[in-house]
Amino acid sequence: MLLKISLVYSPAPRQVREWVLEVAAGTSIAQTLAQCRIFEEFPELQIGRLSVGVWGRKTTPGHLLHDKDRVEIYRGLRVDPKVARRERFNRQGVKRAGLFAKRRDGGKAGY
């Protein structure tokens, strides 16, 4: 029995590469990646250090696939989200962010 699998990888922001594969029942994520030959196209990926998931839930490369699964390969974060938010807030300034973005005439800040 063949399973239809979708494999998705985003090599850079706003770029998505998708493969639609048919694999045999009982195939693992690692076997699917080898069959897809993604490592030839993206040599920076390494099977041992790969972060993968199925439908947004993180899992291991040994996970067995089911029909119509969507396998996702995750990139590492370049910047800590808390640091990025703090820097964005500092660039925008206090008066343009959060509670202070909208203000009624004659009203107090944040109300």
TrEMBL record:
Pfam families for this protein: Ub-RnfH
SUPFAM superfamilies on file: MoaD/ThiS
Superkingdom of origin: Bacteria
PANTHER family in the record: UPF0125 PROTEIN RATB
Similarity field: Belongs to the UPF0125 (RnfH) family.
Species assigned in the record: Polaromonas jejuensis
Protein name: UPF0125 protein ACFPP7_18085
